[in-house]
Write a structure and sequence with these properties.
By secondary structure, the chain is mostly helical. It contains 15 helices and two strands. The chain has one domain. The chain has a two-stranded antiparallel sheet with strand order 1-2. The longest helix is centred in the first third of the chain and has 41 residues. The C terminus is likely disordered.
């Protein structure tokens, strides 16, 4: 099962390393390897969260996630997205943006590709931060049978009964972030506050739209139908919750998953320029990492890991909340990538440990079903 799930990732890794070597000899090979490891280490919580969504998809859509989804992640987010951001913010044509990227200029030098992408970071951070914050808040405000950090999750679930509370809190956080972290003496960004506000609102709106459309078309989950029998009208659930969503619901769930993955990758794409300004090396290295994260997501689904270790999802969502806050902080301050990665690993690790302890405790509490055999005379 391991090689069936990770086989393509291993093959892509070998091809990527070879391309890195052919592109820039030993230096290219080393940089590709470093970026791939960086992407995997920073995105483990992404795999856990993706698995909670992917488990609702049919095998067909899981394959789409590993094929079309990888193409979107590698070429879309790691290569085309930075070019679009630079082109839009610097008012450059696509050809000029590509030319600037291939020059591999120093990110600290004004006018270079890396510098322009860094200038666009506040808008990227606000969009991704708000999308992830909404995901975190909606999870915390939802009532659920199993809680991990019960001392805070249960009170949050109670106050979460207030309609649209997550939206109100998210908008409040965005406003505070824009008018505190958005103030900059940099004359190159005089309208940074308005940029942050607009980007943040777009991130929030994207979450509401994609998530809402997925739920709207997922008619098999919650729809009720009327049935008349003996002249009496009664309401009954159409059928139990489907194991996999299909049709339009599956498509929008896939779309939601791609936007979620994009929000996770924003910080990594920007941070990669601290290692190398070469967009080709960045795309290859981060692309290898993205492929492994997708394979890990499918592996978690097939192994039923989330069902066995029930607190993993909670740990991943707490890591998402932390990442959302970190993204907003990076509007003004630099946060080392290692800090972001360690926080995510810490939440996942503690959740895994708590799940193991829970499973052991429940196993010990199970009554011994073995009955003693009657003694023979």
């Amino acid at each position: 099962m391991f090689f069936r799930t990770f086989g393509w990732s291993l093959l892509i890794a070998v091809i990527g390393l070879v391309l890195g070597f052919l592109y820039d000899s030993g230096t290219g090979l080393a940089l590709v390897a470093i970026l791939a490891v960086l992407e995997v280490s920073l995105s483990f919580d992404n795999a856990v969260v993706n698995a909670t969504v992917l488990v609702r998809m049919s095998p067909f859509w899981q394959k789409i996630f590993l094929t079309v989804g990888v193409a979107i992640a590698v070429f879309g987010m790691r290569l085309i997205f930075p070019l679009l951001i630079v082109g839009i913010t610097a008012k450059l044509s696509p050809v000029e943006a590509v030319r600037l990227a291939l020059e591999k200029g120093d990110p600290d030098t004004k006018g270079t590709y890396g510098y322009l992408l860094h200038q666009a970071h506040p808008a990227i951070a606000a969009f991704g931060g708000m999308f992830l914050l909404m995901l975190f808040l909606d999870f915390m405000f939802e009532e659920r049978e199993i809680t991990w950090l019960s001392w805070i999750e249960k009170p949050l679930a109670k106050i979460g009964k207030l309609d649209q509370l997550s939206v109100v809190i998210a908008l409040g956080v965005l406003s505070i972030s824009a008018y505190t972290l958005g103030k900059s003496a940099d004359t190159a960004q005089p309208d940074r506050i308005s940029t942050i506000l607009v980007s943040g609102v777009l991130g929030l709106a994207t979450y509401l739209l994609v998530n809402g459309l997925g739920e709207f078309f997922d008619v098999d989950d919650e729809d009720e139908q009327e049935s008349t029998e003996g002249g009496e009208i009664e309401f009954q659930v159409k059928k139990p919750k489907a194991a996999h969503v299909v049709g339009k619901a599956a498509f929008f769930l896939f779309l939601y998953l791609e936007v979620l993955d994009a929000s996770f990758s924003f910080d990594g794409v920007i941070g990669a320029f601290a290692i190398t300004p070469d967009p080709i090396i960045i795309a290859i290295g981060l692309g290898i990492g993205a492929m492994f994260i997708r394979s890990l997501t499918v592996f978690l689904v097939k192994k039923g890991t989330l069902n066995e270790y029930v607190y993993l999802e909670h740990g991943a969502l707490w890591a998402i909340g932390a990442l959302a806050v970190i993204l907003l902080i990076t509007i003004e301050y630099e946060v080392p990538e290692v800090v972001t990665g360690l926080i995510g690993v810490a939440f996942i690790g503690l959740a895994l440990l708590s799940s193991i302890v829970r499973n052991k405790r429940e196993g010990d509490d199970q009554p011994d079903t073995k009955t003693a055999e009657p003694a023979t005379v």
